Amino acid sequence: MVKMFDMGSNNQSDLCIIGGGLAGCEAAWTAAQKGVHVILYEMRPQKMTEAHVSGNLAELVCSNSLGSNLIDRASGLLKEELRFLGSLLIDIAEKTKLPAGNALAVDREAFSIAIENAVLSHPNIQVIRDEVKYIPDDLPVIIASGPLTSESLCKDIVRLTGEENLYFYDAIAPVVYADSIDFKIAFRASRYDFDNSAHAERIELKDFEKDILSGQQKFFEGCLPIEILAARGKDALAFGPLRPTGLKDPHTGHRPWAVLQLRQDNLAGDLYNLVGFQTNLRYSEQERVFRNIPGLENAVFARFGQMHRNTFLSSPGLINEHLQLISDPRIFFAGQLAGVEGYMGNIGTGLVAGLNAAAFIHGDPLPLFPIETMLGSMIHYLANSEKKNFQPIKANFGILPLLENPPRSKQERGRQYAIRSLDTLKNLRS
Fold first, then answer.
1. pTM of the predicted protein model
2. Residues of CATH 3.50.50.60 domain(s) within the chain?
3. What is the pLDDT of residues 375-395, one digit of tens each?
């Protein structure tokens, strides 16, 4: 362990936060708003990861979509809970949003810059660009170092928790220039040769990216590379990222067999990402295979897809429902490292860790979010689920307590879950 002054700071701090991603920034802002003096450590750009392209705080590495805004959807409900709780990052997302139907998508550069400006300008937050290799032992800590936690810090977390880190693989979808898309046929797709992707040459993962126990690739089912899906059968993609749910071909009036969605990736509208097409194919193979898609025959790629290691803690039995390490309550975990999946889970656990760390520092009772809320049920899952085969949790209605008289309609059930959750939060505040 190490004292804070050994990490380059002579300033007084109440709280150390390790990691300047979504969870770390939300945690820093939340604690600072409660009067806590925060030092936020981010190792980029001094030490870059394999997936980030800038040193900006809260850089979005994968999609630029934060998911549905509809409260009858799990992600939409979690978003509404965070709005109610005053989330900084949700507020900034609204200010940097792009057209995306019922989803909340952002200009990723404007989003991260706005968050960085807000964090840097807060009088209670100091940002230090340096790698933290050891967990400090002289003050409360929130560890929100994310899926690409450095090797040194990983080893110290393993030493502290007595657990092996687990790995699965996240994947980044390609981005193409808008002026290289044939908009005469864009958003239309026919039954092209899926064997192209199933048998295309993949990038070999580096040794440090393989599972620490087996030495093999381990994929997360919620974010499979398209070549893995395609290898499961010719229809697999049509029921996955190419599913045409709710769409009609404007030329025929019929539902197409498959559709590739292109989502605007920046405010200028000159970049589009291939939604759901996360991949580990070699770059030359991505050009060859994806140009078989109607409308993308001449696509120019601004960014190729890639895989990266995603590290998370086996949380059950290690942390409690305040996100505290049970064996050392001054230490909190947040974000993907804590075992949540998705941008909203990162932001939500960052907010909860910030609130709880502030209460811990002030000697106040630590807030506990009811399991009737999406946020509370996700944290309850982290603390209480079965340790065997533990997988990161994403917002979903399946983890909420059942409704007393659940309606048959899925949409109406979602709406009833949302009403119950938001009423619970309002009653807590009153």
1. 0.74
2. 4-165+313-415
3. 999 999 999 988 877 778 889
